[in-house]
Amino acid sequence: MNARDRILARIREALTVPAPKPGSHGHAQEHDGGHGHGDSSAGTRPIGFRNRPVHVARAWLPQGGSTPAEHLARFAAASAELKTDFRCVDSEAEAHAALRRIADDEGWRRVASHHHAMTDAAVAALGRPALFTDGGYPPDDLEACEAGITTCDVLVAQTGSLVVNSRSSGGRALSVLPPHHVVLARRDQLVSDLTDAFQRVEALHGQQWPSMISLVTGPSRTGDIERILVLGAHGPKKLTVLMW
Amino acid sequence: MSIAAQQFLEAAGSITRNLRHRGLIQTALRKYEAARDRKKSAFNDWSAARQSAAETKWDAINHLDTYLVEFASKLEARGTKVHWCPTGPEARDTIRGIIRDAQAKCIVKSKAMTAEEIHLNEALEKDGFEVVESDLGEFIVQLRQEPPYHIVFPAMHLTRDEISDLFERELGSAPTREPEELTMIARRALRRKYLQADVGITGANFAIAETGMVSITENEGNARLTSALPRVMVTLLGIEKVLPKLEDLALFLPLLATAGAGQTVTGYNTLYGGPRQPGESDGPTEWHVVLLDNRRTELLADPEQRDALHCIRCGACLNVCPIFRNVGGHTYGTTYSGPVGSVITPHLRGLQDWKHLSNASSLCGACTEACPVKIDLHHHLLQNRRNAVGDAPSWIERLAWRAHAFVVNTPALYQFAQEVGRIVEPLRKRLQGTPLDPVQSWTRTRDLPPVAGESFKEWWRNRR
Ligand code: SF4
């Protein structure tokens, strides 16, 4: 028997004895009742059930709002708390103007990006030398860039997060190696909560998954020294979201 | 008493008197508690969310074989190599083999408690490889050559001054009192490593069966870099990490972040589904996923405590535990400390050697209350105590209880014992806790209520 089969055999043997209901703390009847959620019988279902309603839990979580205006307000509030620089502007031209101001203020010499209609236009508007990661790049060159400019798949109002991936956001490193990550986004990419976000990601990529999908929430951070917040631990010190 | 138990007692005895340690831990945990409570209040219904999570993990663990097979075959379909390792040494050898085959020199590693569990770093260093921990807290404790203090906050026991001294000594940096400056020193030291490393080793927080992906939670971006730049990536995870569906993360990511660190969600939650795919611009060309059993199946075989495998290693139970807060993380002498460590270590490393941890508990239940997946932690501590006594009964204890039962069941004898008790009471009071006391180890830190001058029966009789 190989190692895989040995482990699986041990698991199957162990599972011949059933375990008490989840969260019942050993008392068959004492269930966390009173919440009226429809899935409290899950514990008694037979082996292999896969029809657990996945949307049940979202009602208990922090909420992202139900209208686009609420989503926007929630995303803005979450961004402020996370220290993400979030700007919602009226047009692509305004976004480019904002980007130029940031580049001037920080004195960017070289930026990194990937090819996409939105990023191409932004890089052209910046008028600075650019490294495009598509098809491979020298990592040292990327490390020397002051900013990484990418698109994203979806933004999440509930948490102030955004999703990048290794296929259509310029690879694994572009959004995390340069000290400033700039995300270009459209308003219709903003969804209410993580459940919606995972559905959107699945709709976009479910046929052929990229090798990496990252939910990014704020700039890189650490609290490892006396639980004091410091931004820019290993990843970007700044995260800017330009949305129009 | 086992060696581990003796070490525990000694370490606990000295650290509980250390006021500096106490101050540090309490400040850190006060900050944690305030942040966690704020984030918990943003939930519509925290306890219902926990119940949903408990049910989801119950499903995952009670169908572990099905989900693991699904997880592995989906991963393999995209070119990932999956290794199944029944024991720690097998996992270690597998990873050493991968690294030798890759002809690696420098290895970067992001946080992985499973790697601590199998002592991976020591093994690799013995082979002559340089292994650099990239998580800031882990980097600090690695420089100090000590194990992480806490499963989520590895360097929680150190002040900024100690860290500054350490960096000055080990990295030659200028002393500073600014956490920001200290973080930047580590950032600069590690940047080169990401670019130089041939192999990146990571842990994992969840294994998604439905899509064949691993999910890694972190704040710093070090795991993202570890899995972006080196040409070979190795991910080590316990077999209990499975979740059935991708969308389950919509529940588990906020629960983990809120319970673990008082965040809405953690900074980076990254899904990995394979090595670099055609058309992608970077990423490792080889990805090895190492699935570790290491006696988790023993815990699985105990239906009473099987839910301990639901643990998502958030650390909440450590943070609220009055024992952990007093004795600290290193005292346990285990990879997993705090209540969850006390529950699972006897299963992973032997009940008789580690049963003392289940006695180091006030049974207050704060851990069970805090656990985001509703593991019945404090009852499991009791069950460990029961099992330990059942396995290796103590004859003295048995005899004592027999004698006690005999006395209290024989009214005349009981009466006599009361009289004797009253007579020797003044002497007992004097002797209690002194070296002349035959049960000193018990009475030194405990009070025996005085024998009453009059029993209830006597009181009743006199009043009629
Ligand atoms: S037992 Fe529960 S509270 Fe403790 S670390 Fe695991 S999930 Fe968190």
Mind summarizing the main beta sheet of chain B?
A: 6 strands, parallel
What is the overall number of helices of chain B? 24
CATH-derived topology of the largest domain in chain B: Rossmann fold
User: In total, how many beta strands of chain B?
Assistant: 10
Shape of chain A: globular
- What class would the helix/strand composition of chain A place it in? alpha/beta
Question: Biggest interface: chains and residue counts?
Answer: A-B, 100 and 118 residues
- Weakly predicted, low-confidence segments of chain B: none
Average pLDDT of chain A, to the nearest integer?
A: 89
User: CATH H level of the largest domain in chain B: which superfamily?
Assistant: NagB/RpiA/CoA transferase-like
Low-confidence stretches of chain A: 28-51
Task: Write down the domain tally of chain A.
Answer: 2
Shape of chain B: elongated
Q: Class of the largest domain in chain A in CATH?
A: Alpha Beta
User: How helix-rich are the residues of chain A, as a percent range?
Assistant: 25-40%
Q: What count of domains describes the coordinates of chain B?
A: 3
Largest sheet of chain A: 6 strands, parallel
Q: Compounds present?
A: iron/sulfur cluster
Report on the structure:
The complex is a heterodimer of chains A (244) and B (464). With 244 residues, chain A is α/β, with parallel strands linked by helices. Chain A has helices at 3-14, 68-82, 92-106, 117-126, 139-144, 194-205; strands at residues 85-88, 111-113, 130-132, 147-150, 154-156, 161-165, 180-185, 190-191, 212-216, 221-222, 230-231, 238-243. In chain A, the strands form 3 sheets. A 6-stranded parallel beta sheet of chain A has the order 1-12-7-4-2-3. Chain A has a 4-stranded mixed beta sheet with strand order 8-5-6-9, with helices on both faces. Chain A has a two-stranded antiparallel sheet with strand order 10-11. In chain A, helix 3 crosses helix 4. Chain A is globular, with a radius of gyration of 23 Å. The N and C termini of chain A lie far apart (59 Å). Mean pLDDT of chain A is 89; it is low at 28-51. In chain B, strands 1-10-7-4-2-3 form a 6-stranded parallel beta sheet, sandwiched between helices. In chain B, strands 8-5-6-9 form a 4-stranded mixed beta sheet. The radius of gyration of chain B is 26 Å and the shape is elongated. Chain B folds into 3 domains: 1-42 and 317-393, no CATH class; 54-294, NagB/RpiA/CoA transferase-like (Rossmann fold, 3-Layer(aba) Sandwich); 402-463, no CATH class. The model of chain B has no long low-confidence stretch (mean pLDDT 94). Chain B is built from 24 helices and 10 strands. By secondary structure, chain B is α/β, with parallel strands linked by helices. In chain B, helix 9 (160-171) crosses helix 10 (179-196) and helix 16 (338-349) runs parallel beside helix 20. Chains A and B meet through helix 1, helix 5, helix 6, strand 9 and strand 10 of A and helix 2, helix 3, helix 4, strand 1 and helix 8 of B. Bound molecules: iron/sulfur cluster. Iron/sulfur cluster binds at residues 311-317, 340, 370-373, 375, 377 of chain B.
